[in-house]
Design brief:
Blueprint lengths: L12 H17 L8 E10 L5 E12 L3 E3 L1 H11 L1 H24 L7 E4 L2 H4 L4 H12 L6 E6 H4 L3 H13 L2 E7 L5 H7 L4 E4 L1 H4 L6 H16 L3 E4 L5 H9 L4 E2 L10 H9 L8
Parallel strand pairs: 2-4, 4-5, 5-6, 6-7, 7-8, 8-9
Antiparallel strand pairs: 1-2, 1-9, 2-3
The structure holds ligand C2E and magnesium ion (3 copies).
Length: 282
């Protein structure tokens, strides 16, 4: 209307379709937990070169009644935009803590040592976030040092409430990991200002091992900086034996990726821990 009477703005049908698609996805997502459509998979983080289980990363899965499995890459951004991530993320925290504590009860020392949970920027800046984490720990009985929250560099880049949340996590004894490390705006600068425990070197760098001299130099340097700072450094997205061997030679002690394990169901994790198939419950 601002541009005068009798004119009309150009209508972009593709944009409209996308907006509707998002709205539909958001509406479905808002009832997905209560309908039992959401569950977690757990991808092992392993020690190099042994391949021993060092921890698990909880990864959300949505089995849509009509569409089938929807990728987190598709629905997490929608959940972030609509704020649904806050409730969804709280569910992920409760469920992953419950599962980790149940495995400790059942397997003792053989249980996966650490549980990592992805947390969005949107969750981190919620004033309730530290209380949500505390409640998940208290209700499950999981010791705080067994939990790691994975955040991205961009979430904490601006400081403010997100950085305060990181400090609150560490005050609780919860570990903090920088996920997709190296892809942010100021990865090195962040190491000075944001106190963390773990660096997860992004797959895009690991992909260059062993073929790219430049990528290998980055991967090596990040490990040296992280190790000098007494951080745990994990190479993400390791897909081949050659990469795993080379990363070990470059000094890496931890890795994660399809070469070792895909994200596993809870039952598959138990089989891996038990070393033999667990008979299905009858
Ligand atoms: P991320 O935290 O960086 O997780 C790693 C992603 O890479 C996972 O995808 C995992 O399945 C995949 N991946 C692991 N190893 C390999 C490999 O060797 N090759 C390849 N090509 N991919 C590998 P996924 O499960 O689809 O999750 C995608 C992203 O969605 C995650 O990236 C994370 O940012 C987000 N996400 C997943 N679960 C949650 C959650 O519970 N809460 C939040 N806020 N975000 C989540
Ligand atoms: Mg992650
Ligand atoms: Mg990652
Ligand atoms: Mg990544």
């Amino acid at each position: 209307k601002e541009s005068g009477r009798g004119r009309c703005a150009e209508f972009d049908p593709a944009m409209d379709a996308r907006a509707r698609e998002h709205a539909r996805l958001a509406a479905d997502l808002s009832v997905a937990v209560e309908r039992g459509e959401i569950h977690l998979r757990y991808q092992p983080i392993v020690a190099l070169p042994s391949g021993d289980l060092a921890g698990l990363e909880a990864l959300i899965r949505w089995n849509h009644p009509v569409r089938g499995p929807v990728s987190p890459a598709e629905f997490i951004p929608v959940a972030e935009k609509t704020g649904l991530i806050v409730g969804l993320g709280a569910w992920v925290l409760r469920e992953s803590c419950r599962q980790a504590a149940a495995w400790i009860d059942r397997y003792g020392d053989r249980a996966p040592g650490k549980m990592s949970v992805n947390v969005s920027a949107r969750q981190l800046i919620e004033p309730d976030f530290p209380a949500t984490v505390e409640a998940a720990l208290r209700e499950s009985g999981l010791p705080a040092e067994r939990l790691t929250v994975e955040i991205t560099e961009t979430a904490v880049f601006g400081g403010g409430p997100a950085l305060e949340a990181v400090q609150a996590m560490r005050a609780l004894g919860v570990r903090v990991a920088l996920d997709d490390f190296g892809t942010g705006h100021s990865s090195l600068g962040l190491l000075r200002t944001c106190p963390v425990d773990v660096l997860k070197v992004d797959k895009s760098f690991v992909d260059g091992v062993p073929h790219s001299v430049e990528q290998e130099a980055i991967v090596t340097s990040v490990n040296e900086i992280g190790t000098a700072m007494r951080l745990q450094v994990i190479a993400e997205g390791v897909e081949t034996a050659t990469q795993a061997e080379r990363l070990h030679v470059l000094g890496y002690r931890y890795a994660q990726g399809f070469h070792f394990d895909r994200p596993l169901t809870a039952q598959e994790c138990e089989e891996r821990v038990a070393g033999s198939p667990v008979p299905a419950a009858v």
